[in-house]
Amino acid sequence: MGSPILAPSMLAADHTRLAEDIKCVEQAGCQWLHVDIMDGHFVPNLTFGPQTVADLRPKTKLFLDVHLMLDNPQEFVEHFIKAGADQVTIHVEPEYDIPGTLAKIRELGAKCGVVFNPGTPVAAVEPYLEQIDMVLAMTVQPGFGGQSFQESVLEKTKQLAAWREERNLDFRIQVDGGVNADNAPICRNNGVDTFVAGTAFFKSEDKVAFRQKVEELV
Ligand code: DX5
Ligand code: ZN
């Protein structure tokens, strides 16, 4: 299990002043930034494209963790990696060549991961565990920030942690959706080491303290 990492989600930032809000993420001492890409088909919302990532890249050293919520991620991984993504995660629900897309992400020099929705069995990601750097377990139905954390998903992160240990693998286990300082401990107890937080991070008055609580430093 890796040391805990908080990845604030840019979805909850002010989209007219992304560069300034990203400075707040850096000033809180964070190392990662989670970037949600939505296509209006796989999820009922639209967000950013490769141009946003390319424009942010020279402004920050944060590790850009790009979460693709797309029906056709295989057509976009190259654009996002060329734009500066450090890691790209792809959903297992749509029909496309998942192992080939993971291999392509690696070939292009980025880290890769698979994502599954709350209604998807954890077995859907099992075939890829040896090929990835991270599994993202969605703790809300993706599409919007500000939803309630679904604690039942933690049975699946626990299973992932058991597989990771039994098979001597070292992928990270990330949760995304409704994560806050109060539910981070139960996540950690169920194998989670990487925490996306949008609303809870950007609404918190003391962002350093928020990070320290989530990263178990206090
Ligand atoms: C949801 C996105 C999340 C979202 C989380 O579809 O994948 O990354 O930003 O936001 P909060 O933390 O507000 O639930
Ligand atoms: Zn996300």
From TrEMBL:
It catalyses: D-ribulose 5-phosphate = D-xylulose 5-phosphate. Its EC number is 5.1.3.1. Keywords: Carbohydrate metabolism, Cobalt, Isomerase, Manganese, Metal-binding, Zinc. Gene3D superfamilies: Aldolase class I (3.20.20.70). It is an enzyme of class 5 (isomerase). The active site is at 36 (proton acceptor), 176 (proton donor). Binds 1 divalent metal cation per subunit. Coiled coil: none annotated. Its cofactor is a divalent metal cation; Co(2+); Mn(2+); Fe(2+). GO terms for cellular component: cytoplasm. A divalent metal cation binds at residues 34, 36, 67, 176. The keyword Isomerase applies. Catalyzes the reversible epimerization of D-ribulose 5-phosphate to D-xylulose 5-phosphate. Belongs to the ribulose-phosphate 3-epimerase family. This is Ribulose-phosphate 3-epimerase. It comes from Pelagicoccus mobilis. The gene is rpe.
